[in-house]
Design goal:
Layout lengths: L1 H49 L4 H8 L6 H4 L1 H5 L3 H8 L10 H7 L2 E5 L8 E5 L2 E5 L7 H10 L7 E4 L4 H4 L2 H8 L3 E4 L5 H9 L3 E4 L5 E4 L2 E7 L13 E6 L2 E5 L5 H12 L6 E3 L11 H7 L3 E4 L11 H9 L3 E4 H4 L2 E5 L5 E5 L22 H14 L4 E4 L5 E2 L12 E4 H7 L1 E2 L8
Parallel strand pairs: 3-4, 4-5, 5-6, 10-11, 11-12, 12-13, 17-19
Antiparallel strand pairs: 1-2, 1-14, 2-3, 7-8, 8-9, 9-10, 14-15, 16-18
Helix pairs in contact: 1-2, 9-10, 11-12
Length: 435
């Protein structure tokens, strides 16, 4: 027995020693786990307390593997910049008058038919997007710039050139150079001077053709004409239908003939036009009864000033009135401004008289005859003399009325009743006429 027990006794001690070592190793391992777990908890607590603004999200980001941090870190820093960088690269969303977000979300569209005399210039502002349709005759720059400044515009997103006649492009050189439109829409080849101005401003030139759809801020514009070029500048005018807040505006340039008839046919398939910019300043060669039957305009604006053509003609004004349109002219009413809310509520304001044209001969104080506007003002002056009223004088192209003998009457001298002159002109600062 003793011989057998001795090896057992010697073998038990090493086994016990090994067992103790294993227990000790396990204890050390458990201690390490507890210690590491405690450090991890401390780190998490510190992370949560160190960034109170981050909350749980900040804690989670801090404990992510390094490969996840590039995604998590830029998000809060770059997100505000995204809406600013996108519009600058996309003409239809560019910011012309401040931050894009507030203006674009408001959904308000403003259309100003600027009083530039005998010519066309219209400003369209929709949210933060601003465009100019035509640039009036030479000398129109102050009136256009005043309209832009009143709307808080710092840069134009686009300019639309209906056609290359001087009464639509005369003011564009300075406007393009100083307001640097991002995009220009036109039909055909610009004049060499305008082409140079557009290049200098870094403006992208886009040919406008029927069927194209353009995004003007929160408004939508569709090109209705031309489908192709005939070589007749008036007939090939770019014609736009602008839809904003459920209201429609039709900008016609000087469109006439078959192209104007085609525009009417397109409009006949839709709802009535709310505001028509009358083609060719009220010339008798445009705005036919058939076109009016197709477009059914509720309001018509004639961009016109003192001229020797007899614009707007009594025939055209008569057709507009017969069609049930309320007629305004920039000659009589000054700049005409329409404001359309996102819900479709529309208001109108004027820089001069708010009275619409009520008779075919009253739109520009003149009818269509050899004397044109002069005939109408002369008739008004004769009536005023008969009733003992005061007579003052205007010129064919000026914006002021004058006393008899003023040096500015050397080129033309058209009599007009003072009471009529007050509504359409401002008094001359040189001759100091009665007011």
């Amino acid at each position: 027995m003793t011989a057998w027990e001795e090896p057992v006794t010697r073998g038990t001690a090493p086994r016990r020693t090994a067992l103790h070592l294993k227990v000790l190793a396990l204890a050390l391992a458990l201690a390490a786990v507890v210690l590491l777990g405690g450090c991890g908890s401390a780190a998490t607590t510190a992370g949560s307390g160190a960034d109170a603004s981050g909350g749980v999200a900040a804690t989670g980001a801090a404990t992510q593997a390094p490969s996840a941090q590039p995604t998590a870190e830029p998000s809060p820093a770059r997100t505000p910049k995204t809406p600013q960088s996108t519009p600058s690269a996309t003409p239809t969303g560019s910011t012309a008058s401040g931050g894009a977000g507030k203006g674009a979300s408001s959904g308000v569209t403003t259309v100003v038919f600027v009083d530039v005399g005998q010519g066309d210039a219209s400003v369209v502002k929709s949210g933060s997007w601003t465009g100019l349709i035509d640039g009036g005759p030479p000398g129109s720059e102050p009136a256009i710039e005043a309209a832009l400044a009143k709307l808080g515009v710092r840069r134009l997103n686009a300019v639309v050139v209906s056609h290359m006649h001087a009464d639509h492009t005369g003011g564009l050189s300075r406007i393009v150079s100083e307001w640097r439109p991002r995009t220009a829409y036109l039909a055909g080849t610009p004049t060499s001077a305008l082409a140079g101005d557009l290049r200098g401003a870094g403006t992208t030139v886009v040919q406008a053709r029927r069927g194209a759809t353009l995004r003007f801020g929160s408004a939508r514009a569709e090109v209705l004409s031309p489908a192709g070029l005939s070589g007749d500048a008036n007939s090939d005018s770019v014609v736009l239908r602008l839809d904003a807040g459920g209201k429609s505006f039709l900008f016609t340039g000087d469109c006439t003939g078959p192209n104007e008839a085609a525009v009417g046919s397109i409009c006949a398939r839709g709802t009535p036009i709310d505001v028509l910019k009358v083609a060719h300043h009220g010339s008798s060669y445009s705005t036919t009864s058939a076109v009016l039957a197709d477009t059914r305009p509720r309001v018509a604006v004639i961009s016109v000033g003192p001229n020797s053509y007899g614009h707007p003609t009594p025939a055209t004004v008569g057709r507009l009135l017969a069609a049930g349109s309320r007629v305004y002219t920039t000659w009589r009413n000054g700049s005409v401004t329409f404001t359309v809310s996102a819900t479709g509520a529309m208001s109108v304001s004027f820089s001069r008289s708010s009275q619409p044209v009520k008779k075919a001969t009253a739109a520009g104080s003149g009818g269509e005859s050899d004397g044109g506007a002069a005939a109408g003002t002369a008739a008004g002056a004769a009536s005023s003399r008969a009733s003992g009223g005061t007579i003052v004088y205007v010129t064919r192209t000026g914006e002021c009325y004058h006393a008899d003998g003023c040096r500015y009457l050397s080129s033309s001298r058209i009599p007009i009743a003072l009471k009529d002159a007050r509504d359409k002109y401002r008094p001359c600062s040189v001759c100091d006429p009665p007011i």
